[in-house]
Specification:
It contains 7 helices and no strands. With 129 residues, the chain is mainly alpha-helical. This is DUF1048 domain-containing protein.
């Protein structure tokens, strides 16, 4: 009976907070970033903020993106690649190209579809007036 209650609690917790495995992956990613040299960590944290607002993925897709980001910067730090050599002259161009490698998350896909449908309905009203 105790195992059944524990399983229900974990199911409820995951429903409210999201999958526990994704949270573990997130904290592993954050631990990796924490060990980067200061300048690389600063760049990753800035990129992370941008991705939080404009990134295409959520859930497992987002974690794959962040893990790839950690891989990139760990390797760049090991090779002592200058920050400008990673980002180029236009950091936004870099991050947009980086994001293009990942699928849209479910939330963003749903909202894009909702937005497109609303515009289609509004445009249809123009034609019928």
């Amino acid at each position: 009976m105790a195992d059944e209650s524990k399983n229900r609690y974990l199911q409820y917790l995951q429903l409210v907070t999201g999958p526990l495995e994704e949270k573990k992956r997130w904290w592993q990613y954050k631990a990796r970033i924490k060990h980067l040299p200061d300048n690389y960590r600063t760049a990753v944290e800035a990129l992370e903020r941008y991705l939080m607002h404009f990134g295409p993925a959520d859930g497992a897709g987002a974690m794959a993106m962040y893990e790839d980001l950690a891989d990139l910067f760990e390797q760049s730090a090991a090779d002592r690649t200058p920050i400008r050599d990673i980002f180029g002259d236009d950091p936004v161009e870099f991050v947009e190209a980086f994001m293009a490698n990942y699928p849209l998350g479910q939330y963003r896909t749903r909202e894009r579809n909702r937005f497109t449908s609303a515009i289609d309905r509004a445009a249809e009203q123009d034609r019928t007036q």
